[in-house]
Amino acid sequence: MTTAQPLHAVLGSGPAGTALARELVRRGHPVRLVDRSGSGPALEGVERYAADVATAEGARDAVAGAAVVYHCVNVGYHLQVEVMPKIQEAVLDAAEAEGARLVVLDTLYPYGETHGAVMTEDSPWNATTRKGRMRAELDARYLAAHREGRLPVVLGRSADFVGPGVLNSTLGGAVFPAALTGRPVPALGDIDLPHSYTYIEDVAAGLATLGENPDADGRVWHLPTAPARTTREILALVEQRTGRPIDVTVVAEPRPFGPFDETFMAEYAEMFYQHTEPQILDSSAIEKAYGLTSTPLEAALDATLAWYGEFLAARR
Question: How many CA atoms lie within 13 Å of 37's alpha carbon, on the beta-carbon side?
Fold first, then answer.
């Protein structure tokens, strides 16, 4: 007689949530992928489910029967400060009531300006921006919920995403289509500073690993991330792979470009320090603890360019 595997519920069907759902299926877990519409391409082994997890009822419906809940929900950038705390409250309450473990996909925002210091899990939380302080406050509440015994919680922090399906990243929809078609490629800030990017499949592998290992609970982990390269080095690698010269347009200050409109950039202005000082993430802790390795940046760029090639062909 076989025992059914416990359900893993992934909240949020963006690039991270979708990649995570696939990774969990690959590892043999039943998976529910939740967003507000419940629509999207069929994913083998994945149940798509419609629920609004910003509401108490929607969050309860989304996590019903789940042993592990992954919070990968995001909202429009200009709505984050107002909406993300409401989502946290609903998801925490629902996961606690269900008796589930909670794995949270997190950002580097709580660290604030580091002045080039390498970010480890022990780095101080010095955020001064609205969104940075909001993220730090959320994280403090998550960890407090764990300490207080409400439910097991673990946080996985990622640098900027890169990879197949990643559009709304500084190394995403504004860069790769332009590089493939010969249009000007925008690059933010000082392009000779090192900047960490986390490959979307490594985000998925890291979160899935945290979801499978309760001994990870109660703390922040950095998800597997390749060694930082300068923006100039990354664009040179892209240029080598496309076989055409890249016309780089340096965006030295916050202004609309590519898929990032005026509304987004007005909100992003306070975070622009990420492009005027080095952003270097150390993920050695999770790699040593669980035997993970980050995908080399070259391989990540190969996969990303292949995906964008198909993406552009489908739109013609």
Answer: 5
Rounded to an integer, the average pLDDT of 42-51 is 97
Domain interval for residue 273: 176-194+228-279+296-315
Number of domains making up the chain: 2
Quote the tokens at residue 66.
Answer: 């789940």
49 DSSP 8-state letter: E
Dist CA 150 CA 114 (whole Å): 32
* 221 membership: H or E segment, kind and range: strand 220-222
Here the CATH number for the domain that contains residue 243 is 3.90.25
Q: Quick check: helix, strand or coil at residue 96? A: helix
HSE, CB side, 13 Å, CA atoms: give it for residue 158: 21
pTM higher than 0.70: yes
SS (H, E, C) 132-164: HHHHHHHHHHHHHHHHCCCCCEEEEECCEEECC
